[in-house]
Amino acid sequence: MKTTVVRDTLNAKPRDNALEIGSRSRDAGFRNGSLDEVQLWRTALTPAEVAVHHGLAAESLPASIQAEHTLRRADPAFAQAWERVQQARRALAAHEETAPAFFAMEHSPLAPKSFVLTRGEYDKPDLSKPCEPGIPARIFPWNAELPKNRLGLARWLTDPKHPLTSRVIINRLWAQVFGAGLVASSENLGMQGDLPTHPELLDTLSVDFIRSGWNTKAMLRRLVLSSTFRQSSTPTAEGREKDPANLFLARGPVLRLTAEMVRDQALLASGKLVEQVGGESVQESANRRSIYTFRKRTAPPDNMLIFDAGSREICQPKRLNTNTPLQALVLLNNPGFVESAKQLAVRVSKSSAEPATQITEAFRQVCTRAPRPAELAALTELYATQKANPPQFAPAPVAPKAEPKKADPKVVAKQTNPKAKKSPAPPPAPAMPRMPADPAMAALTLVCSTILASDAAVTSR
Amino acid sequence: MSAELLSYDGLMQPTRRHFLGTSALGLGALALRGIVGDAHAAPLPKGTHFPAKAKRVIYLFQAGGPSHFETLDPKPLLREKHTQPLPDSVRQGQRLTGMSGYQATLPLAGSFTDFKKYGQSGVEYSDLMSHTGGVADDLCVIRSMHTEAINHDPAITFFCSGNQVAGRPSMGAWASYGLGSMNENLPSFIVLVSQDATKDQPLYSRLWGAGFLPSEHQGVQFKAGKEPVLFLTNPEGVSPYARRGMLDALGKLNADQRAAELDPEVDARLAQAEMAYRMQTSVPEVADLSKESPATLAMYGDSVKTPGSFAANCLQARRLIEKGVRFVQLFHQGWDQHGGLPGGIKRQCKQTDQASAALIKDLKQRGLLEDTLVIWGGEFGRTAYSQGKITKESYGRDHHPRCFSLWMAGGGIKGGHVHGQTDEFGYNIVKDPVHVHDLHATMQHLLGVDHERQTFKFQGRYYRLTDVAGHVVKAVIA
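YS: structure for the whole thing
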């Protein structure tokens, strides 16, 4: 009988541990076919058994098939060895079940060929026009020795002679530090992008970057230690008039901190920032730098979205820089920021007993400079009025005494089931933040909160 | 120029595309001028291109793909042919989903519910939509909608942002970006998600995201309960008096910073903080439905008293547009009836029919309907044949993007009108197809916006809600 085996393996457990045959969960029957007979065996059949089962006489089978059958079914040494193999397989399978699932890509030998799609329609390939992976050779020619896969692409992109890669990276690093790239359209260095304001500078940095082995940290250090970066950002009236966008870099940069910086800075000022480098991702409550916190594309954290971090659903080469009421609400009311204000108040209250000194210290922690006299006066006045009007709390509702709950055996079983899937614990719902009751501490907390919401805090000048 | 890198200048030599695209004398410039005028030269100023018929939009999005057969598009033939196979002449070899595409048969399923004619216009609505039928003369039913995607996520992303792949700005974000705000106390795009819905298919914040537009245009979700907007409530112990004091101090800090740094952006930041302060009063006020009259509440139905229900959100939507919100989008999940459709769709209509009709009546009696565009509909329709088992009483329907129905009202829309027609099987469109891009173009047209001229430059090119497609459906405009 001619047999076609389409697939001979099950890759995953069947859904709901139920094996469906000839149908799927929500189908009705299967198309263009029917089932004649289905048999399930506990063991793999020998070819001889299959043949006999389909009506062939055992004697008619070739000697090699018969010999294999005899070996597998009658030889005690084989049976023992087989049992050991089975045990080892079960152990392997059990071990594999405990490992977390992990997806990796590989080139499939079965990958379908690609064709030019007629007018871009996915279901209208032009079979006369097969296509292969390729690169825009006008930018940089392809080395025929490279494999036409992702490795080849990576090698092509990072070839030291590639004219774009290092310039693009340098331009973005420059934009991170100076607010705008040497090519203003940092998302587009092509025909429709802007021309560089300082082409030779871009070239020099790009070449040095490649020579350094693409050392990002060293390059960032070089940028922030440059005399260009360290200039005062305050424009003269003439400078503002002649070059409002600071294209000629005659003054230092002004930039709104990124979403991550805004959060990290508040944590740092509060003294709660955990300065651990690397490791697994953590929840926001872990007080690590924002680059370490979990990001779910379908549910991006609100305070990140509100400060233009984007949802990461598409590549966003350049972030926008908005200014909205929701940002003010985050800075003043988000539990994380209120907590930072509270901790900062605690921290500076220990540095001195003198309110003006405490306020100056808090301002310095957040804004990295001492307050000007008018700023200190405004904050000192806020402190005095708030201290004179301490917070009033609604009486806390008396919680009814909870009956000790009888343990539900099902729940207990579920909790202790070692096979239960381990997933990262969901972030605890942030409790509504609460002011300290002590009038002086409450007033100082409000001052710290005001500093965190000020322009001087969220803008680097 | 370094010898190690290929010349950057070399890359900047003009190409044919460059010539067509940017040369003042190029063909591209000539061809484009007719289409876009000079709008690309500078960012489009906020405002309209021509007089608007609608000032605002309430979009009642029915997520999951409501069946047109049991709501807005009567197909008596399917009742006669109940359980008979879908003719190949109707299907015409079109692709089906992987869910029902491998079924042995595709048995036709007739609607379990009857249709009646409503109003002077005599437009037919199913018995499950009787309240909606009650305002038939104000509605325009489009029975010839079609879309490009056959699964929920790409289809709803396409409907809400004009593109199947996530990341483009949503409809409301475009409206906010193009038309600006009409009030000083509330965001211009607000989203309300039903809490009483069956959550069969997920919703994502990208459906009301700003994409690459400035984030101030992203939809702000109003939630039922104590804090309708995130982070609106002051920390415990911070009185309004304390907050006022903080803002006054903030004003002084920023005034000093402004004087020292000569930067007007500092003023903008203070203005936004002051708006946040006003929102702390205006939002709880607008979210408080308790002052609505008993007659109004009764009109929306019992569930209006359940915070966050579809009915409560319809009423909330009216209150928001009264306060000058530009675009309010409701989302009601639960329309994905692959099996057990009769029970499921009865529940869905019970949750939405009365309140949707009440919203129309309420807007009308307040004189708001004439310049408020209301749209009711989902991301695609459902198949004429049953998915899974079919009996006399029950059946399911798979996703169907080739035709579906929705209704529009107010804001310059022709009332008591039916646009477009599907074949007797409700499978293909036979007259006046309306693509999702066409609906977007029409919506923008009613708002006074030329959909071809409202653009935003991103990643080197100009984007629109309708991207490179879309035609205004003039026939639905009064």
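YS: worth flagging: Chain B touches chain A through 92 residues (CB under 8 Å).
IM: good catch. Also DSSP finds 14 helices and 17 strands in chain B.
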